[in-house]
Ammonia monooxygenase (Candidatus Enterococcus testudinis), 358 residues
Amino acid sequence: MIINIAFTLFIAFIGGSLFKKMKIPAAYMTGGMIAVAALSILTNQMTMPRSMKFFAQVISGAYIGQQSSRNTFLQLKNLVLPIVLLMSLFTINCFALGAVFVHFFDMDWTTALLSCLPGGIMDISLISIDMGANAEIVATMQLARLVGMLIILPQWSKLILNTVSKITSHKKGAHIHRSEITSSTKTILPTQQVQSDLAILIIAFIGGYIGLILGIPVGALVLALIFSFVYKLRVNPASLSPYIRYGAQVLAASIIGSNFTMHSLIQMKALVLPIIILFVGFLLINIIFTLVISRLGLLDVQSAIFASSPAGATDISLIAADLGGDLTSIASIQITRTLFAIVVLPQLINLFVQFVVG
């Protein structure tokens, strides 16, 4: 059993490392999941206890909590209307497309709704396990959304700019923002980094354990996130090492990938049309949000496009830094979108499934 678990983690690491070299988004999650799933289908020997999801959720919550800052929340007061509009559009899209998937593609409600969440692939996949959804379907749908958006986003933004607006992009503001980030980056010794990482993880694990005891949906991730964020505000530690995030991705990829079977592979063929529908839904949100917010003068067109793109917050910020936009507003809205997708929407889905679907 232990040997199989270690082998599964090793295969996930190899797959993730390969995808990392290929510069594929969420490399350790996607590459690890594909590698483990492939061997699981072929050999049926991949093993990873689902109880391990607690550790992956806590690390994920710790990492997300460290991405926020006081500046993020100070910026939010100027972005209330855009955020309310975008979160409303995402909620409507989630339940509308979820209903389509349930009635026309034979998904259960929890799986269908979680497949439509605009959050991180690892976070949503872990949530799907916690809420009893079909994790393979959710992970596949989330992967398609993430990779698809990142691939087409540069050309998509240019298309919208050319057809909807002639506004000049705020490249000057983008360069200022990047220089600010560079100047505020801390240089610390390896031992200090280890101590900082341990402190963050201990705080997050305390929160995660409380969430587990309380028994609320996705409680470990949510409470770990909150504890990590409060610690960030009070202490402002060094950024959590990316290698810890990679470890959580490998663990999550092992959990999901080990559940794939030949039946799962056959089932994936039925997801082509749902994936296309999901993608179209998010592109429509992107257009509607951009048109409304830019015409109200709350954001320029370029910034509105990136702020409402449901891909990784870090990846979107990097793309925006190259193509132009108000990076502070984009980052604030993207972080809010991530928090909304993993904290608020799962609770709404849980209430809907319990009290409406029954």
Notes: The chain has one domain: 64-121+136-242+264-357. The two ends are 38 Å apart (CA to CA).
